[in-house]
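pipeline/complex-builder :: batch 7 item 3
reading input block
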Amino acid sequence: MSTIAVFIERRGGAIKRAALEAITAARFHADRVIALELGSDVDGLLAAYGVHEVVSIEHALLERYSSQAVAEAIAQWAKSRQVATLFFGATAMGKELAPRVAVHLEAAYVPDCVELAASDGHLDAVRPLYAGKVRATVRPLTERAVYSLRPNMFTARPAEQPSTPEFSTFTPSLSQEQCRVVVTEIVRNEGKLDVLEADIVVSGGRGMKGPEHFVLIEELAAVLGGAVGASRAVVDAGWRPHSEQVGQTGKTVSPNLYLACGISGAVQHLAGMSSSKVIAAINKDKDAPIFKVADYGIVGDVFEVIPKLIERIRALKQSSAS
Amino acid sequence: MVVMTILTCISYVPDTAAKIGVTADGSGLELGGAKYILNPYDEFAIEEALLQRERHGGRVVALTVGSDAAKEILRTALAMGADSAAIIAATGLDSFGVAANIAAYANAINASLVLLGRQSIDHDSFQMASTVGALLGIPAISVVSKLDIEGDRVRAERDIEGGKEVLEATLPLVVSVQKGINNPRYPKLPEIMKAKSKPIESVEPVAVSPRAAMVRYQVPQLKRANKILGDSDADITEFVRLLHEEAKVI
Ligand SMILES: Cc1cc2nc3c(=O)[nH]c(=O)nc-3n(C[C@H](O)[C@H](O)[C@@H](O)COP(=O)(O)OP(=O)(O)OC[C@H]3O[C@@H](n4cnc5c(N)ncnc54)[C@H](O)[C@@H]3O)c2cc1C
Ligand SMILES: Cc1cc2nc3c(=O)[nH]c(=O)nc-3n(C[C@H](O)[C@H](O)[C@H](O)COP(=O)(O)OP(=O)(O)OC[C@H]3O[C@@H](n4cnc5c(N)ncnc54)[C@H](O)[C@@H]3O)c2cc1C
């Protein structure tokens, strides 16, 4: 019987969506899905998502998060249970943890998967290379394999029938030497939705003409309940912070809607957003490359179009709310 | 105190503007004609190594795993100020094979700090720091935007979703750096000339079995609706309708 273990990442106690997406994908490819928790949070969501078993990894040395120790602990557990396939969300945490676990398990690490497909007894994965210009199908050549799944590429869907998971605790054997790195503090950008976690991203580029005009982007993002993103041109110019930069040297996002305003669509920008579900663009140049990858576009001036859009969308939200 | 050896690993990658194609049968990539450059993130790794050496003393060694042509980027690292450089001439390695070679070399020179870029813009895996760290049995911190070292104690900041993490660690350590951690220096002409005559050590690769294979490549098919409208009031209304009713994203 095939088993896939999924690492459950939490933020402020709540399970991250990337973990729910990984569980949903795991259900599809395995008969048994095991949720691996740090600590002993109990969550009805795991039953709703149909996991068969929940394992809490507990150890006094794990009180402060240490990627080194957690990777060691997960690998010890996987060996003890002979679990050969593990899924992580390709989040900041997952991307650091998963390759370490893979080394401890002598497993292949398959990063940033956007599709999974079983074929001849292998679980192959598709992943973008060269800034998304090509896609490769990667096949693990080892008995064990560790995958990280790009957020928002797999749908998170509760199981048809909720499960009654078995609960157990695993206590790894860890030494101080295996916790030589620890997280001592987490600083949040309060009150700001991150482009990595938003369903809608509204980005502005050099076509916005100056930092003062980003109020338009902020307002449009606010009516849509989305996050503000930016091209590198405006980040380099100091108009917007680096944390908002989308693209090859910024963040890779896959929201449900990516709306690019006054962005030309350079290949390095596309690298960070071309896997978005829906792409829309506003640009005054009908030949701007962004339109080639767009589902919907308006050829027009951002300063005329965006205020009208804000008005229409606000009206739409009000009519659907009443 | 022992002298700190800092290893900085750099990759030789097709320029981001390069056209990358797939062979007709999907079995390979067509990189013909692509111009190769120093991976942009690795400039920050080299600079960070030089800055740490300025603060703490020690020596900086630059390493690349790849074809002989990659010596070009080692010259850049030498011109920026690296003390020495080494190449492990091996091609066709998967990421794990590259990591195993980096780890073996780090061990051989007894590196106490290994500095990498956050991602190599060819395969964009973000994994090398963790993999090398695990192979060496030492901690690793990825996507670091600030690095302070005091004796063997390290304080780092790294970017995460919606904020940053502050971490503490001790040497030896592997770190991958984020853009913005420093401003890479531009080597001046005399340094570029001097770098040309510095020796580059050739290191025998260690043989490791690959852990993954790329079995097929494809050019992504754009399945985009591509409905491009004008800017009349009617067009803007239609644009909102399409997003709401057709795409159902707002
Ligand atoms: C299954 C598979 C098969 C492959 N086959 C080939 C092949 O046949 N030919 C080929 O050319 N490539 C091949 N590659 C790609 C090659 O292994 C990668 O380019 C590799 O160098 C690292 O990419 P990464 O995305 O894992 O690195 P990342 O984790 O994104 O890189 C992070 C950092 O690691 C350091 N780094 C990365 N690569 C090197 C390097 N080579 N030398 C020194 N430092 C480095 C840099 O500091 C970089 O910033 C293959 C990869 C895989 C997974
Ligand atoms: C190694 C490397 C890495 C890079 N990484 C990134 C990255 O991570 N992210 C990134 O974004 N870029 C990146 N770039 C830069 C990229 O090549 C482009 O330079 C950048 O994306 C351009 O930003 P832009 O679209 O805002 O500006 P421009 O290319 O100047 O485009 C501005 C657009 O606005 C339109 N416009 C102007 N006025 C108006 C108006 N009034 N109304 C409507 N439209 C208007 C114009 O028609 C034009 O299309 C990278 C480059 C390199 C070499």
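note: The two ends of chain A are 51 Å apart (CA to CA).
queue -> next item
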